């Protein structure tokens, strides 16, 4: 049920300022989330600060997996999401602390006894998500939206989960941009 590997090309500059290919090949950081078998994070790139330093620096993806983007930065990744199994839906909430720990953000999990999906979570970021292959359901607190190949979601720090109710893998492209809640939203979230 796996999808093909991701091919990444990173450019840079030589000492004369001419454009060059720095790397051309597979992603160095591809991690399956042990607590959610079949879920694979393909780390493409990340930036820190704004404006971002344009340089020939080291590959920022060669580090432990982290869900949110760096402060004032961005993160681009591709995630393969397997179909939800009956076992996962019934017992998945118990595994979420382990899953979110593996992806570097235990605090992101918002799952509760009455959550609509065991993967409910939130990050203080604006995330652009694009369905590359398959289909997925965006689950929010009290509503859902079916997404198909080519669908684009702009996720503005809301509580959500991705449910794969199909019989095949889904591949999503995500670009995460560090954010900060507007004060009235921060207050509302604190009072939930």
Average pLDDT works out at: 92
Output the radius of gyration.
18 Å
Summed up, the domain count is 1
Spatial order of strands in the largest sheet:
3-4-5-11-6-9
Query: What is the helix content?
Result: 10-25%
Give the name of the CATH superfamily.
Jelly Rolls
The portion of residues forming beta strands comes to 35-45%
Largest sheet data? 6 strands, antiparallel
Alpha-carbon distance between the two ends: 39 Å
CATH class: Mainly Beta
**CATH topology description:** Jelly Rolls
Could you say which structural class the secondary elements and strand pairing correspond to?
mainly beta
Total of DSSP H or I helical runs spanning 4+ residues: 3
Outline: globular
Number of strands: 11
Query: Spans of 5+ residues with little confidence (pLDDT < 50)?
Result: none
CATH architect. name:
Sandwich
Query: What is the succession of H and E elements?
Result: EEEEEHHEEEEEEH
Structure description:
The chain has one domain: Jelly Rolls, CATH 2.60.120. 11% of the residues lie in helices and 36% in strands. A hairpin with a 4-residue loop joins strand 7 and strand 8. With 192 residues, it is mainly beta. The strands form three sheets. Strands 3-4-5-11-6-9 form a six-stranded antiparallel sheet, with no helix packed on it. It has a three-stranded antiparallel sheet with strand order 8-7-10, with no helix packed on it.
